[in-house]
Design goal:
By secondary structure, the protein is mainly α. The protein has 7 helices and no strands.
Length: 196
């Protein structure tokens, strides 16, 4: 599921939801981890989302595994919308004019990729600086605000869902234990009195 799910998005979503709800952590830790993962998915730290989410989850005492699962908020279907939304919002908030199809940006992206491929860190740093102000800074500002916009409600939704899931699971286990106890009582031999 790193790029595209094998079966379907719905099935993959259900799988991730069940994995989150079955984690053995407090509802706060699970919800905090997921919220941090969602927040991190809105930032421009491509390739570092898992690591950034894990560090943030650790800082807020959230569940690190839940944070990794929360980063699935960013996926091939949502990333284009997140990137455009983060860039446009950040440009608006910073009072910058959004750059559209600038040849300088395209050249900087190409030189960034070429420098990374050849491990030329000086050229990589130069290309990164050319991208920082016009692209990455607006994406970081806009993405952080978008991340908060999505992460805060997600926290409360996941926390409430985790509490309800655990209550239902506890009730189911209790009913099963009572059923087994009653079965054991009914199957136990009654007093064995022999007639003389």
């Amino acid at each position: 599921m790193l790029i595209w799910p094998r079966r379907s998005w719905l099935r993959s979503g259900r799988y991730v939801t069940k994995r989150i709800l079955r984690l053995t952590a407090t509802p706060h830790a699970v919800a905090g981890g997921v919220a941090v993962g969602v927040f991190t998915s809105c930032t421009p730290f491509m390739g570092l989302h898992f690591f950034v989410a894990a560090i943030l989850a650790w800082l807020i005492r959230g569940n690190v595994i839940a944070s990794a699962l929360g980063t699935f908020f960013g996926n091939p279907l949502s990333f284009p919308l997140i990137w455009v939304g983060a860039y446009e919002l950040g440009s608006f908030l910073l009072g910058q004019k959004a750059v559209k199809g600038d040849e300088g940006l395209i050249a900087a992206l190409k030189s960034l990729g070429k420098a990374a491929a050849h491990f030329d860190w000086d050229a990589f740093g130069f290309a990164f600086n050319r991208l920082l102000e016009p692209v990455l800074w607006p994406m970081l500002v806009g993405g952080s605000l978008m991340g908060l916009f999505f992460a805060i409600p997600i926290y409360f939704i996941v926390r409430r869902t985790a509490v309800l899931f655990r209550e239902a699971r506890q009730a189911k286990l209790m009913a099963k234990a009572i059923e087994l106890r009653d079965r054991a009582r009914n199957a136990a031999p009654k007093g064995n009195v022999s007639e003389a």
